[in-house]
Amino acid sequence: MAAVPSSRPRRFPDGFVWGTATAAHQIEGGNWNNDWWRFEHTPGSGCQEPSGDACDSWNRWSEDVDLVRNLGLGSYRFSLEWSRIEPEEGDWSVATLDHYARWCDRLRERDIEPVVTFHHFTTPRWVADRGGWESDATVDRFASFVERAAAHLGADRIARACTINEPNIVSFCGWLLAAFPPGKSDKDLAREVGDRFVTAHRRAVEAFRGAVAGVPVGLTLSMAEWVAVGETDDARAAAQARIDRTRALMEDRFLAATEGDDFLGVQTYSRERWGAEGRLGPEPGVEQLAMGYEYWPDALEATLRRAWDCTGGRVPLLVTENGIGTTDDAQRIRYLHHALGGVLRCLDDGIDVRGYTCWSLLDNFEWAFGYGPRFGLVEVDRTTYARTPKASARWLGSVARNNALPASIP
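Predicted structure:
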């Protein structure tokens, strides 16, 4: 006899952390001193529009903290803008570090855990001009930045630290697809930069632990569900071979670099379909989103399982990004409900998932796509910067307060 689906909410473990996330360049505004600002203003870069004032969160950060609190979330992941903290080599801005310290203090006052990311896609111009991530010297400079910033903020402020956000995306998009700065297309360089990010992560973990004792630190990695497509066994085998080669560069070497970390941040949005000749587009009949990929909430469960298997269960998992870019907020709620169901199935199978962070708090600057994709739980007026929580924000807040996923969507 088939099991009858439960009509009761399904609970998450006690202590499960609920949060949302942003990144400095996407929300602060006026970050002119980094490589991304220059890339946005470079003719032919492919960027839809410049970041400009973004969400004006450099000035409205306290309002953003209150939004997180009012939504009932207990964690806020944000990034430090290296180019503000060290605008020129060795020239440290104490005022900027104090700004981020006040941000952390306000979060703590609101019973929200500050989750600090040290590199979220942007690199200071002076670092880029000295070779950027093509130079081993950047590893040393980044480790120095992590040490200085971590020591200033201190263990009482930082709840968790993420060293580098999605190093696989930065190396792939910046040095192969030419969609990120420096806008190159060189397979060997992309591989080399990825390896350098692995080294930078390990050095950053060491620097962070040397400056701040007892605070969990880890890496965040972009992952996708990879699917081999083909009409015959041979075609599917050829597709799988392509997947295995690509995934070794895009995921596996970074997963291996997490040994000794306190957690791994899994960041997932959709799936990748591959055929014998290479990557395929969205499957006909499957909803397609503003970023060009499929509506596929099952990807979160698949990537959590793969991350757990590939790391041998040696490091706890956190979902540090998951969400959907859409103007249809009912679709967002449907996506989140489905994805969270996958998290519960992972937990049922003994996979150590400690929290869920929704991307993003605000409708913000989505890199080369500009302000078109709407990932935010909170709408931001592009003229006044007024914040308006969406129905999805209230829905996720209710899930977080109850620490339980409703059996169905109202």
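Summary: The chain is about 40% helix and 20% strand.
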